UniProtKB/TrEMBL annotation:
The protein's name in its UniProt record: coproporphyrinogen oxidase
Biological process according to GO: protoporphyrinogen IX biosynthetic process
A GO molecular-function annotation: coproporphyrinogen oxidase activity
Metabolic or biological pathway, per its Swiss-Prot or TrEMBL entry: Porphyrin-containing compound metabolism; protoporphyrin-IX biosynthesis; protoporphyrinogen-IX from coproporphyrinogen-III (O2 route): step 1/1
Tagged with keyword Lyase: no
EC number: 1.3.3.3
Species per Swiss-Prot/TrEMBL record: Mycena pura
UniProt record similarity statement: Belongs to the aerobic coproporphyrinogen-III oxidase family.
Glycoprotein found in the keyword field: no
Pfam families on file: Coprogen_oxidas
Quaternary assembly: Homodimer.
Keywords, comma-separated and alphabetical: Oxidoreductase, Porphyrin biosynthesis
Enzyme class, spelled out: oxidoreductase
InterPro entries cross-referenced by the UniProt entry: Coprogen_oxidase_aer (IPR001260), Coprogen_oxidase_aer_sf (IPR036406), Coprogen_oxidase_CS (IPR018375)
């Protein structure tokens, strides 16, 4: 039996993972409406399925059910087409290990498949979480019925936690779960990917991280980064790297659901809700000003704006010179760790 192409293996995996995650979230709050499942076709090539949750509000803004989630989305995209020369140039700058031509006439064919999720709980004690795992291919232009020559391929992704209030046991559980997966594939991986996460999810104009981190990686291919037990002296195969990415994807529910389960019903005050909205404002700032993925999506031909901006919270707040977050307060405890990242595992 012929071996399945990696793009097909990735498609099958992320579709199954999407269903697992959405089912788990729906099972935690059976009184809330189910996620809205929205399948779409990209005119330039490809398709996807968005599973989004947003509690419908009445005209006075009230909801019939105090749902656990305020807004959430678990999206799949499987797109292909041609990257224009300008996009290839940008990709060479962002992915320095990629052997791509500098000035490709007419652009280059590409495939991108991934799962991206964001969960914004209603309770300020329950943290926001984000995860993204993706596979990318770039090939040479080819004629019909010809097998395209692969120029470059890589995996990327990560998972990070963004609380409004710091619970150290939550931070330790989240990071320890990810570290266990990474350690099974090489002791150097978690420290490197945790550092990469802290550096990537950083808001320069605020001089603080978006949250308390997790892991982040890009350009995972046969020549970069991954060190599997007993294979340090040879290139890693696509199958080995895919196994690692699958293990991380499968770790999402164990890393996050216990935290959400123990925090979503905690009592909270109007001040805590206000602080949550201020922190969500910082989340918006990062996603719209800094995040490379958002910029790539918005600049891609045929971009599906609803899916790209799904990561933004339902509500946020920007206070002029807010007095919240000062040293010695519960809010200040969070500010200490977003200003100076800590090791949690």
């Amino acid at each position: 039996m012929a071996h399945k192409p990696m793009r097909q293996q990735m498609e099958e995996y992320i579709l199954a993972l999407q269903d697992q995650i959405v089912s788990a979230l729906e099972g935690l709050d059976p009184g809330a409406p189910p996620f809205k499942r929205d399948s779409w076709i990209r005119a330039q090539g490809g398709s996807g399925q968005s599973c989004a949750f947003a509690m419908p509000a009445s005209e006075d803004g009230a909801t019939a059910h105090e749902s656990i989630l305020e807004k959430a989305g678990v999206n799949i995209s499987l797109v292909h087409g041609t990257l224009p020369p300008a996009a290839v140039k940008q990709m060479r700058a962002d992915h320095t290990s990629m052997p791509l031509p500098e000035n490709p006439e007419g652009g280059l064919p590409f495939f991108a498949g991934g799962i991206s999720l964001i969960i914004h709980p209603r309770n300020p004690n329950a943290p926001t979480v984000h995860a993204n795992y993706r596979y990318f291919e770039i090939t040479e232009p080819s004629h019909a019925n010809e097998e395209p020559n692969l120029l470059a391929w890589w995996f990327g992704g990560g998972c990070d936690l963004t609380p409004s209030y710091l619970y150290e046991e939550d931070a330790k559980h989240f990071h320890s779960t990810l570290k266990t997966i990474c350690d099974a594939h090489g002791a150097a991986l978690f420290p490197a990917f945790k550092k990469w996460c802290d550096e990537y999810f950083y808001i320069p104009h605020r001089m603080e991280c978006r949250g308390i981190g997790g892991i982040f990686f890009d350009d995972l291919n046969e020549g970069r980064h991954l060190r599997l037990p007993g294979t340090e002296k040879r290139p890693r195969t696509p199958a080995e790297i895919f196994t690692f990415v699958q293990a991380l994807g499968n770790a999402f529910l164990p890393s996050y659901m216990p935290i959400l389960s123990r925090r979503h019903a905690m009592p909270y005050t109007p001040l805590q809700r206000r602080w949550q909205l201020v922190r969500r404002g910082r989340y918006v700032e990062f996603n719209l000003i800094v995040d490379r993925g958002t910029k790539f999506g918005l600049n891609s031909p045929g971009a599906r704006i609803e899916s790209i901006l799904m990561s933004l919270p339902e509500t946020a707040r920007w206070e002029y010179m807010t007095e919240l977050g000062v040293e010695g307060t519960e809010e200040g405890k969070l500010m200490e760790v977003v200003k100076t990242p800590r090791e949690w595992a």
